[in-house]
Amino acid sequence: MSDPRAVTTPEQTSRRRSAEHWVVLCLVLGAFAVELWLGLRATPDGRGFGTHEQLGLPPCRAMDWFGVPCPGCGVTTSVTHAVQLDLASSFDTQPFGLLVALAIPLMAAWALWTALRGGDCSLLLARWTSVPLVSLVAAAAAFGWIWKLGTVF
Description:
Elements: H1 10-15, H2 19-41, H3 61-66, H4 75-83, H5 87-93, H6 95-116, H7 121-128, H8 131-152
Helix pairs in contact: 2-4, 2-6, 4-5, 4-6, 5-6, 6-8
């Protein structure tokens, strides 16, 4: 039995990864796989929203009940446009969706690179989750929703 207080070498430390590392790695790579699958399976809806309905999901209730898009309206359509390399349509449909579509493969590449180098994705990700970053993402989502409201009305 080894002594838990024993000093470990940097090589031994870098090989030990938390369970959270594997969760983050699987989630990010899974999101990338879903994004690619979406781009191959779905056709962007011409209305600028509703592509998610092709996946068996219900229509947007806010649009049905109030005629107003919800904050997520158009994101799936935008991501589908982006995966199919129609970036202009992706931005026009929902700018936040384009940001999501670009962020997912970048995060997947980062997570894979980190894992291959022996790093722990969850520890590095924890350093990024700060108030300014969360605020920036929230502002981008709000801008996307305002953009979407402007295109509907």
